[in-house]
Amino acid sequence: MMNKYVIFFSLLIFSAFNTIAIAQNVNTKEDSLHYVQLTGIVVNDSLQRLPYTAVYDKSTSRGVICDYFGYFALVVHPGDTIQFSFIGFKKKTFIVPEPEIGSNDLSIVTLLESDTIMSAPVNVYPWPSREQFAEAFINLEIDNDAINRAKERMSPQEMAFVYGVMGTDANLAYKAQSQHYLNQVYYRGQQAPNNLFNPVSWGNFLKSLNNGDLKIMP
User: Do residues 70 and 51 lie in contact, with contact meaning Cβ atoms separated by under 8 Å?
Assistant: First the structure.
């Protein structure tokens, strides 16, 4: 009976020491695996920021997406492999180093190189041969409806009609008011001239009419 109690107490003491050893081992691992706050920006060859770049921690299978300004923030461990990927650029990896003593923050600037994909040139022709294309191009009938409508819109009759129905804007109204005010100041205290009774103006008008510069519209 005494031997049973001795064996029981021996097993109990052994289990207690084993539990303490396991707990110390776990605490040692947790102390050695400390966290690092990794922040930074991603830029291209021209030092322009790359928004929405994928930042992936291959060691922990976690990641984030950069914001519109190419900035990111991720909690990592020293020794983790960080991968940066963006469409049209080569992927880049970064190994997280040990931070400085007394600091858990690490900031980096990652530069991604352009990834040029070359493909064989493809010539697309709407006709089976160049001869058929030349023949179709020569015999092409151009629609002149748009040109005819533009010419009609630019005729003197049409321009006069548009001028009559189009209202004035603020700029034209300001210029007209300013000119009217200047005329009042210039001819203050005297009668403004009337070119209807000016013989020089009539002479210039008849001269322009005889030279064909002016035409009388029917």
Answer: yes
When computed from its CA atoms, the radius of gyration of the chain, rounded to whole angstroms, is: 44
CATH 2.60.40.1120 fits 33-111, yes or no: yes
pLDDT, tens digit, 9 for 90 and up, residues 134-161: 888 888 877 677 777 777 777 777 777 7
Count CB atoms within 10 A of the CB of residue 70: 20
User: Phi/psi at 154 (nearest 5 deg)?
Assistant: -95, 5
Taking only the tens place, the pLDDT of each residue in 197-218 is 777 778 887 887 787 766 655 5
- 3-state class percentages of the chain: helix first, strand second, coil last, to nearest 5: 40, 20, 40
pTM: 0.42
Domain segments of the chain as ranges = 33-111, 130-210
